[in-house]
Amino acid sequence: MVDTFSAVIQRPNLLTFVIIFLWGFYIMVTRYNLVKKLIGMYLVQTSVIYFLVSISAKKGATVPILFSATESVQAANYANPLPHVLTLTAIVVGVATTGVGLALCAAIYRRYGSLDEQEIIERLE
Amino acid sequence: MSHQLPAILFLLPLFAAISMPVVCLKHRHWSHPISVAVLVVMVLVSVLNLYNVAHHGEVRYVFSGWTVPFGIEWVADGLASVILVLLSVLSLLGVVFAGPTSPKSLGGRIVHYYILILLLISALTGIVFSRDLFNLFVFLEVAAISSYGLVGVAGGRALFAAFRYLILGTLGASFYLLGVSYLYAVTGTLNMADLADKIPLLLDSKAVVAGLLFMFIGLGIKMALVPFHVWMPAAYTYAPDSVSPVLASLVTKVALLAWVRIIYWVLNASIAIYDIPILLLVAVLGSLAAVIGASLALAQRDLKMMFAYGGISHIGIILIGIGQGNQTGFVGGIFYLLNDAVMQAALFFLAGVAFCHYKVRTIEDIGRVGKQAPWLTGSLIVMALGMIGLPPTGGFFGKWQIILGAIEAGSYVSVAAVLLSTLLTLAYFVKLFEAIFRQTSAPLDVKFGEIPLSFKLTLGVTSAAIMILGLFSSPIVQMLLNHALPPGL
User: Fold this and answer.
1) Less crowded by CB within 10 Å, the N or C end of chain B?
2) Which fold has domain A2-57+79-124?
3) Closest residue in chain B to residue A27, using alpha carbons only
4) In chain A, what are the domain boundaries?
5) How many whole angstroms separate alpha carbon B405 and alpha carbon B382?
6) B332-358 tens-digit pLDDT
7) pLDDT per residue over B73-129, tens digit each?
8) Cβ-based interface (< 8 Å): residues of B facing A
């Protein structure tokens, strides 16, 4: 028990990721307002992106450009650039999804005059 | 030249989609012939690609020449090429069908429709070819965003369905991305072949198991597997009539293909995670989906809703075939996937014709126009034969192969699930035919006239294809056995 607890405390980045992810998920499930649902969705996406960035962090490392052409390469001095590239792409995807979601919200509001899920469902029937 | 074919197949619809707003800004009526022309070319190129792959072996395409495992790799193997022929033919039919339906059902947003559908087709091409997990994620999301747009393009009731689809689809994509980052954190690679070397040694790692689980949940949402299917029927039912055939026949099947890729190409299919064989898991999920989907279809009154639940049950039947872990079952599953894509397209074409021309949405209404609609009734009979799985159609031979595979694997629960789902399918089609032939509801006096040529064309071609897939099932199954099997099966 104590071991598990200290293992969790020693990984604050993973703890933060889990909290943000579950928070976003909770908002998506419990809120009736469509824009709040979108905010929850965006939190979930952001938490995954945060996780990707945090696993690629390395103490004392820098951009992957060689310091000198003659010395041998010390892998410990360089950060892996790939997760950052993946993160950029994932951010773009997230922005596009949120954009489509907001456009749908606007269209729903214009048609039904409400953003409350239950009111909209009542009006559909 | 031939090694560029995968990239050409992807770029054709992509460039058409990007240039569409510029070219068709002033001339909206050009968008239909341009899309049809591009897709005809795509069909020809995909057939050429299949011929090339069948005769000269698989084509590996590495983007920018960055060597694997660092660069992004696409592989046109037998399975991908067969699926791509299916994809291009069905999307061509979908766009041909959209000609007369689109002005009414899309509310004037015709150019938007063609841009989004071409984008969707190019993204699906990417999913079929890609051998890089992150690349797969990007294409899944491009396909999903185009689908959200397509479902909501005409406004109205579809907007809310599109919003729910967006929320659940994005949750699925986040789960998938989370799974990919877990695997990347452990193995440091995203290439499927490279992962296939590393993962079998790492199955004790909780991170790998959790990553695989997250990826499966994510893709399960995308392909409307039973516990995660809630977005699918509403989205496909309220989507415009020119949109739902393409979505229903292709999007879920291609997500399923991505799942098959990960199970057979990344993982060694025979592995067990914590003593649970993953193929058993696939077969059990498939059996549940097959039975639950078909029973839910039985309860529907709306035609499109019924066909959408039918699609959910057929996803299950495909998974039963995939999950048997022998050649017969796998080929049966893939062959049934081809059939099911054609049948779903055919059923939604039929529902589209029924609504656009005869103003029919529910089972009661179809009884009123049955006598006046020979094309509708005729093609419905063929589709029903295919969906139930009676001998001259492809559906029969697909199910037959799957059952043979299940018997070979000794999994009698799977056999029972396929049979039960077949009985339930029979039941909901009997309900439909009872409405048409027993004339319980009074026929309408309205004269409807001939249906347009493109409706006849799409209904005729898809009905014929259901038959042809059955009549030529043995050469197709043989070709799948020769070229489309995963490594190590």
Assistant:
1) N
2) Helix Hairpins (1.10.287)
3) B167
4) 2-57+79-124
5) 26
6) 999 999 999 999 999 999 888 888 877
7) 999 988 999 999 999 999 999 998 887 766 666 766 788 889 999 999 999 999 999
8) 134, 137-138, 141, 144-145, 148-149, 152, 155-157, 159-160, 162-163, 166-167, 170-171, 173-174, 177-178, 181, 184-185, 188
